[in-house]
Amino acid sequence: MRNIWITLRASLVLMVLCGLLYHLVVLGVAQAAMPDQADGSLVYNENNEVIGSKLIGQSFTDPGFFHGRVSSIDYDAGGSGTPNYAPSNADMLQRTADAVEAWKQDNPDVPVKELPIDLITNSGSGLDPEISPEAARAQIPRVSQATGISAEELEGMIQEHTRGRELGFLGEPGVNVLQLNIDVQKAVK
Description:
With 189 residues, this protein is mainly alpha-helical. The protein is built from seven helices and five strands. The longest helix is centred in the N-terminal third of the chain and has 32 residues, at 2-33.
C-alpha cells in the first residue's frame, strides 16, 4: 500500500510540474519575448477585427485578389496535412489537371508554360500562407485588369511583401498572400 501512495504522489507532482508549470513558464517566456508570434501572428483590419493569421493560408477566389496555393484540406486549420500522393496517383493527376484548367480560365493572358508550379500544387500542411514571387507576378495581369491597379504598382506591392531567405541561405523567398491582398484592397478603396 505504501508503494501505491508513493507512486500516486510522485505522479501527481510530475503532472503538475510537467503538465502545468512547464507550459505556463514556456507561455510566459513566449509572451514576453515575442508576443505577436505567441498570439498566433494574427492580422487585424481597420476595425480591429481578426481577419486571419500570417501563418495560415486562406482561400481567395475573387479575380481582384492574388490567389494562394491549392489546399487539399480547404484551408481547415483543424485538419492540417495533405495526402502523400505519388506523382502518378490518379487523384493527384486529376487535381493538378483541374488546377491547370482553372488557371487557364482565370488567367487567359498568362500561358500555362509560364504557370509557376506552386500555384497548382499544395504544401505539406495544406495551409501555406505564401507563394513564390514568380507565382505572384504571374497573377499581375488578372489582378490589374480586375482592380484597375497598374502592373507597376502591383509589382511594387509584391516586392514590398517578398520575404527573403532565412539567414540569407535557408528556404526560398515567399510572398504572404493575405498581407499582399490587404494592400490590394486598400489601393482599390
